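WARN no homologs supplied; continuing
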Amino acid sequence: MKKNIPIMLLISVIVLSCEDNNNETITEEPEACFTSSTINAKVGETIEFYNCTKNATLFRWDFGDGETSNLREPKHTFLKRGVYEVKLIAGEDKNQDGILDELDEPDIYTTEITIKPNHLSAKLTIWSTEGWSVENPNYSLAINAAVHFYKEYPEDFVLGEPDYTLYSDENGQIKIYDKEIDAVGFIVVKNEESNIVNGLILAGNYVDQADIDNSAYYEDATVGGYKYLDINGDGIVDEMDKAPLAFISISLEETHEKVVYIGK
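OK structure emitted
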């Protein structure tokens, strides 16, 4: 019996050791990581994202423009210029609620992607008629004029809140790149001036009688007075030419350039 005791003790030690090793749980924390095909692109170009994350099987991407993805290695196209913070959340659904979020203690990796404009879709140059006269026929650039854009044309001529508002720069210009906004018309406002005067779209001033004679007929036309657009092209400026907005076309194929006049 004495000879068997050491053997039994050895067996017991081995068994206990194995049980201790089997009860150990080794947890490796996720390490989020990704690279991209570029960090500088233009609007409309596709960027590929390469996932180099460790110790994770679930992923959630936030591209910073309102779009997301759950793919391991997504591709993404940005539609507007700007600097975007792209975020990758990587980990496991620890609380098993079907969502990978902060409650699961994931790892997060971010990087900035710079998107440059690809195409100048529209350019407005705004001129103020204030101070213009026949003796001094010079318009002045309208700086910091508010340009309100609308997605739909109001059939009842009643304007609601604009869908977008941009302000003219130091050159009196508004530049719209790519599809930054989606609009069919606009109205310009600066102090008491607007491009819509008496319900008609302003087209400058009559320089002389020859200017009046060569323009669409307007009953109240006078030298130095306001000139208006003949919208329907019938050769007469009248009630049929009244409009709540000036038309604009925003296209990815061409640049819509327009000279805009504002007055009181």
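Confidence is low (pLDDT under 50) at residues 1-26.
OK
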